[in-house]
Specification:
Family (chains A, B): Belongs to the class-III pyridine nucleotide-disulfide oxidoreductase family.
Strand content of chain A: 25-35%
Structural class of chain A: alpha/beta
CATH topology of the largest domain in chain A: FAD/NAD(P)-binding domain
Number of helices of chain A: 17
Shape of chain A: globular
CATH superfamily of the largest domain in chain A: FAD/NAD(P)-binding domain
Cofactor (chains A, B): FAD
Distance between the termini of chain A: 76 Å
GO molecular function (chains A, B): oxidoreductase activity
Helix content of chain A: 25-40%
Oligomer: homodimer
Keywords (chains A, B): FAD, Flavoprotein, Oxidoreductase, Redox-active center
Radius of gyration of chain A: 27 Å
Strand order of the largest sheet of chain A: 3-2-1-7-19
Largest interface: A-B, 110 and 109 residues
Organism (chains A, B): Maridesulfovibrio hydrothermalis AM13 = DSM 14728
Amino acid sequence: MSEHVVVIGAVALGPKAACRFKRIRQDAKVTLIDRDEIFSYGGCGIPYFVSGDVTDANQLRTTAFHMVRDEPFFQDIKGVDVLSSTEATKIDRENKQVHVTDLKTGKKSVIDYDQLVIGTGATPRKLNLPGEELENVFYVGNMHDAEKIKAGVTSGKYGKAVVVGAGFIGLEMAEAFADMWGIETTVVEIFEQILPRMCTPVLAKMGQTHMEEQGVAFKLGQTVSRIEGNGKVERVVTSDGEIEADIVIISAGVIPNDKLARECGLECSERGGIIVDEFMRTSDPLIYSGGDCVIIKNAVDDSPMFLPMGSMANRQGRVIGGNLAGRNETFPAAAGSWVVKLFEKSMAGTGMSLGAAKQAGFDAVSVMLIMADRAHFYPVKDMMTLEMVVDKATRRVLGLQGYAGSGDAMVGRINAVAGIMKYKPVIEDVSNLEVAYSPPFASAMDVLNAIANMADNALAGMNHGHGPDVFAEYWADRESGDYCFLDVREYADAEPFLTKYPEHWRNIPQGEIPKRFEELPKDKKLVLICNTGGRSYEAQIMLDALGFKEVLNTQGGMAVLKAFGVDI
Amino acid sequence: MSEHVVVIGAVALGPKAACRFKRIRQDAKVTLIDRDEIFSYGGCGIPYFVSGDVTDANQLRTTAFHMVRDEPFFQDIKGVDVLSSTEATKIDRENKQVHVTDLKTGKKSVIDYDQLVIGTGATPRKLNLPGEELENVFYVGNMHDAEKIKAGVTSGKYGKAVVVGAGFIGLEMAEAFADMWGIETTVVEIFEQILPRMCTPVLAKMGQTHMEEQGVAFKLGQTVSRIEGNGKVERVVTSDGEIEADIVIISAGVIPNDKLARECGLECSERGGIIVDEFMRTSDPLIYSGGDCVIIKNAVDDSPMFLPMGSMANRQGRVIGGNLAGRNETFPAAAGSWVVKLFEKSMAGTGMSLGAAKQAGFDAVSVMLIMADRAHFYPVKDMMTLEMVVDKATRRVLGLQGYAGSGDAMVGRINAVAGIMKYKPVIEDVSNLEVAYSPPFASAMDVLNAIANMADNALAGMNHGHGPDVFAEYWADRESGDYCFLDVREYADAEPFLTKYPEHWRNIPQGEIPKRFEELPKDKKLVLICNTGGRSYEAQIMLDALGFKEVLNTQGGMAVLKAFGVDI
C-alpha cells in the first residue's frame, strides 16, 4: 500500500505542503482535510475584496490561470484528495490516526496516516466585548466573514464604520471602507500609535497623518468598553467616549490554533503556538506543522516568534512537502518582514522596531532619514523615509522600517536587509549593500546605503540630534528662551518662517556659517534645521568644530516634520 | 601645519572621499584637482539629459537642494579647495608631491600631500574607426560631449542615429533618441545579443524585442568598419552593409585611467586598472584609489573585477574618506548589480550571467520563470521574468537576471540577492528569502522564491525542459515528426493554435492527463506548453510518472515565447 500523508487545514500551508509532496512522490496518497467548504484561498486579499479591487470572492481562490482551487481541482490537477466540511477532532499519535467528523452529516470516522501535517492556522483574537453579537459586528477570520462584509458594503447600508485595532488588517480594512466606499471610518487602537510594535511612534505618525488626510479618523490609546445598538450595532463605547457606527470590524490580532496539537501531547509554547524545529517538524517526528499555528525563530536574536503571514505559510509548506518526501529542507528563521499599503503611501519593515529591540534587551538606537527614492535629478521620484535600528555596542543592524510614496521602491530596500538578517549584519554591511543602480531606480549613494551611513555617523557621535517628535517638544517650549532655532537653508527657503516667527526663527545659510557663526548665542541649544537634515548635519559638524557645545540636528528636517504633522 | 589630503579627479569618487574625510577631520586641508572646468556631476544621468527628462545640464551638477557643486560650493559648504582645469601630470611618491599643470595658463606647479587619493575614472574605449573625426560622431565621456549631443538633438538636425555598442549607455542613448526625439535609431553590436556578458541571449532578446516594438532597430553580430561622410557623418559601414546616420554615438565600454598610477609604480592589473585592497588602499599605503579606475573583488568567486559604476564610486569614496581619517573601513567585494530602463520595460541583474559563470569555470545552469510581480489577484500588476544561474555541484546561486514591466519591483528582488551574494548563498537561501509581503507588493510565494524553487526542481531533475530559444528550434523542425507539441491549457486557450496548426498542435488540459494520456505517442518527444510553464511542469511530472521517456517542459510557456519574439 502506498504511503498516506494526511494534512489538516487547507488554506495556505496545507495545500502547499500537500501538492509539493505529491509532485515529488506521485505514488503516494495525500488527503487534505478542512472544516470549511471554502478552502485554499488568499486570506490576505480579503481587504482588497472588500474594497472592490478584487471583484469576485472566487478570485481569491483561483490560480493565476483562473481555475478555482476546489475539490475537483485538487483531485484532477494536483492528485490530492480533499475532505472539506470535515473537522479533525483528535490526533491519535499512538495508532497514527486522525479522528474526523463530517460537518454536513455528523458522521465520525478515523483516518490512518503515515505522516501528518498540521496546518490549522490561526483565529482572530476575540475581545468578548458586550454587544459583540450585534448585527454588523465582524471579525475578519475567513471568506464567510469577507462575503458578509462585502455584501453589506456594496448594498450601501453603512455610513459609518469603526475598526478596532490598527494593525495590518485593521488599516487595510479602514482604507477599503474610506477609499472605495466613502464610509466615514474611525480606527480605535489601544496603543498610542498605529502598527504598534512594528515601528516607532514617529514613523507610525506619518502613516496616520496620511490616512487622516484621506479622511480616516483615529482614536489612539483608547480601549473599547462595549458595543451598543438595538439589534444592529449603533455605536462603539470607548474609554474616552462614543463613536457612531453602522459596522464594526474587530481586528485585534490572531491566536494560533494549537488545540489539536496540544491535546495530543505535541510540544507547544506557553504563550500559544506549536513548537517546530528548523525542518518544521513537531516533537513527534511523523508530524510536521507550519503557518499561522506555529512558533518559529526570529533571525535577529534567535528568540521564538509568532509570525502569522501567508508568505511564511507558503514557504514553510514547501519545506514540509520536501521533508515529507525524505529531503532535508530547512526553514531556519525569519526576520519578520512586512509591508502595508495605506492609500497613496506605504509602510514596510523588517527585523525589530526600536521598541521591540529594547524589549529584547538590546541597547538600541534608531536614526531616521528622508531622501528621494532614486536619482534626485530624475523627474519621476518619490520621497522615502527610512528608520534603522542598531545596537550601540555591537553595531548590529536590528531592523529597518520605512514610510514612502513608492511601496515597490521601499520593498526593494527592505528585502535587501531582510535577506542578510540571518547573517547578523552590522552597519557596514548595509553601507556597502549593492543596490542595483541607474538613475531611474536608485541614487548613486542610495537611500539604503545612506541610512546605514547615518547610523554610522550617529554611533560615532558625528550626527547628534533628534527626530520630529523631540523637535516638536523644543518648539512647544520656544518661549523658554533655551533654544535657538537655526534654519541653515538659503534665505528664500527660510524667509516665510522668519516672517511668521520673527522672535524664534534664525537663518544662516550653511555656506555662510564660517563667516557668521559669531552671530549665534553660545548659551542656548542650537536646534538646526534644513529641508531633509543633510545641510543641518554639515552645519552641526561645523558648529561643533567651532566650539559650540549644544548643537542639535533635526534629522529628516522640514520634510519629516511635515510628514509627522508638526504644525509649523 | 594641518594634514593635507590631495584628491586627483573630482567627478564621483573624489568629491565623496574629500567631503567625507573633511567632515571627520574639520582641521585638515583637502584639495580636489580636476582637469575639467565642469566636475562633480552625475555622469549616469547623461542619457536622461539627452532625452530631455533632465532639462538643464546643471541639474546633473546640483545637490538635492538645488545648489550647483562648483568651486565656491566646495569651498563654502564643504570646506574643500578645488583646483579645476588643472591636470595632474605626475605623482612623486618619494617626495609626496603631485605635479600639476594649470590648463588655462599653462603654469606648472607642485603640490605636497600627506595622503593622496586617485579618482581618475575611466575613458570611453576608442574604436579608432576611419571617419571617427567626422562631425556628429560622439563618444559619451563627459558633460561637454553631452552638451554637444543635446544641442544637436534639440535643434532637430538629426533624422537618423546609429549607436555603436548595445551596453547600458548605448541602449539608454538609443531610447533617448527614439523615444523623446523621434529619431530613427539603429544599434550596432559586435556580439549576437544586447547587453553581452550581462545576461543570456534569451533574456537579452526580450529586451531587444521590446525596443524593436518601440522603433529601435538592431544590427547584432556586426562590426563597424568605418564611418563615412562629407565633413559630417552620413553613414556607418558595418561588416554586413551600410546604415545611414546623421549622428553616431560610440559606446563601446570604458577603460580605466590608470596611467598616473602606473607611471609612479603603483601596482596595476595587466588588463588595466589600479589594484587596491579591501581598504581601497593602493600598493602605496599613503595612496588610496577607487571608482572607475580600480579593480575590485567579485563577490561571487573572489576574482578581480572591473565595475565602472557611479554607485561603486560613491560607496568606495566614503570608505576612502573614513580611512584617510584613520578608520578601518572596508569595501570587501561587489556582486555586479545593474539595472537599465528600456522604454516601458526594464532589465536588471546581479552576480554572474550564465555565460560569465561558465567562463569563470562553474558548471552552471540557468532556469527561467515568468510570473506576476505581486498577488495574481491584485488588479495592478506586471509580469516579471527572472533567470537564475546556479552551480550544479554546489547548488550555489551565482547570479540572477530579469526582464520586467516594473523595474522597481524587479530591483526589489535583485537587491535582495545582491545583498546575500558575499555570503555565497545556495538555492535554499533564496527559496526562503523573506520578501516583504502583502498583496499589492508581492505574492505569498513570491517570484523570487519561486525562481529558486524552480532551480531546485531543475537540479533535482524534476523540472526538465527548455527555454524559448530551444522551443523555437523544435518548432522550426516540426515537420520532422520527432515532436509532439502538447498544449496542456484548457481547450479555449489552445483552440486558436489547434485551428492554425491542426497537424502539429495537440491539446489535453492538464487535469485530463490521467484519463487521456494513452492518446499520446510514446515514440516522440513530448514538448509541453502552457501559459507560463507551471501547468506544463505539473503535466511533465505526471507524464514522467506514467512512463513517458522524453517529456520536455517549455519553461516560461507562451508568455516567454511572446517576449522572446517566437512567431507562433
